[in-house]
Design a protein that fits this description.
Helices cover 29% and strands 20% of the residues. By secondary structure, it is of the alpha/beta class. It has three domains: 121 residues, Cobalt-precorrin-4 Transmethylase, domain 1, CATH 3.40.1010.10; 123 residues, 2-Layer Sandwich (Methyltransferase, Cobalt-precorrin-4 Transmethylase, Domain 2), CATH 3.30.950.10; 68 residues, Rossmann fold. The strands form three sheets. A five-stranded parallel beta sheet has the order 3-2-4-1-5, with helices on both faces. It has a five-stranded mixed beta sheet with strand order 6-7-10-8-9. α9 links the parallel β11 and β12.
Length: 317
């Protein structure tokens, strides 16, 4: 039987933030990773699916700021691929949709490093699932355009609104900061004051939804005390009835589970399924990689937990 070459690097989509929406393939990659290079929007709990000796490296970029340049991320990924057997590059959403996948693929090919791309649920699909709507709808919207409101080096480019002009749906990634300008472009091209929904932190415990019209949505976002987090903007008739799905959620439980990691995973998943947020504190239970210890310590220190669960060790009979 021929030997199948195992990729050294997995470019993995972590999905929109809710751990329950991670694919089984992505989970398997994380579990066998020797090192994980992860983005800002990756839920930290997902890192805890890895082994205690896995190295965690934050290479995230927040909107309109840069934590690490893309060239530096590429160089680090190549360096780790030469050191470790399995490298996971963990990216929020789907790496193929505004995830700079081409840059990283090009770098890996240049250095003859085997790799595999693992897709994830993208923000537009996740957001619409929360609104109980479809991105397309028979008789309403037959097509959709994914675009971005943020461009390399902050260059200005007009929106492609061809789909909207044909009655379709427009999904704008990373466009909240430029929303007034973007909505002005839509108003100038289309007479109809189309429905708009902005979904912040889709599927996460701090999800927030604003519903309005092209003429009002920028003012609604500006009226917020602060931007709740990364947001995706959906324009088109598919979001005409989203108000029923935007009721305020109760304040979520934020729970610290103390115990051995493998014994706490199911408990944490149950908390997420119930609409809460959880992290496992196993710093005193297992010899963790120094990067894990540092990242967990900072995260736990900065989080205001509503409760703490101590998992008792199993007693051998």
């Amino acid at each position: 039987m021929s030997v199948i070459e195992t990729p050294q690097v997995y470019l993995v989509g972590a999905g929109p933030g809710n751990p329950l929406l991670l694919s089984k393939k992505a989970e398997r990659c994380i579990r066998r990773a020797d090192v994980i290079l992860y983005d800002q929007l990756v839920n930290p709990f997902l890192l805890q699916l890895s082994a205690p000796n896995t190295e965690w490296i934050h290479v995230g970029k927040t909107p309109y700021t840069t934590y690490m340049r893309q060239d530096d991320i590429n160089a680090l990924m190549i360096e780790k691929a030469r050191t470790y057997q399995t490298v996971v590059r963990l990216k929020g959403g789907d790496p193929a949709i505004f995830g700079r996948l081409a840059d990283e693929v090009e770098a890996l090919k240049k250095h003859h490093i085997t790799f595999e791309v693992v897709p994830g649920i993208t923000a537009a699909s996740a957001a619409m699932s929360q609104l109980q709507c479809g991105l397309t709808e028979r008789g309403i919207a037959r097509n959709i355009t994914f675009t971005t409101g943020h461009f390399k080096d902050d260059e200005e480019k007009p929106l492609d609104i061809t789909t909207l002009q044909q009655g379709g749906t427009l999904a704008i990634y990373m466009g909240v900061k430029r929303l007034p300008k973007l909505m002005k472009e839509v108003r100038e091209a289309i007479e109809d004051d189309l429905p708009v929904a902005v979904i912040f932190n889709a599927t996460c415990v701090d999800q927030q939804v604003l519903a309005g019209r092209v003429s009002t949505i920028a003012h609604q976002v500006a009226a917020l005390n602060e931007t709740p987090g990364p947001g995706i903007t959906i324009v088109g008739h598919v979001v005409r009835d989203v108000l029923a799905a935007t009721a305020n959620r109760p304040s979520p439980e934020r729970i610290c589970i103390v115990g051995e990691r493998s014994k706490c995973i199911d408990e944490a998943m149950a908390i997420y399924e119930a609409g809460g947020w959880a992290i496992i504190d196993d710093r005193n239970m297992t010899a963790l990689h120094p990067t894990q210890n540092k990242i967990l310590t900072q995260l736990i220190r900065e989080t205001s937990f509503t409760s703490r669960i101590v998992m008792k060790p199993e007693v051998e009979v």
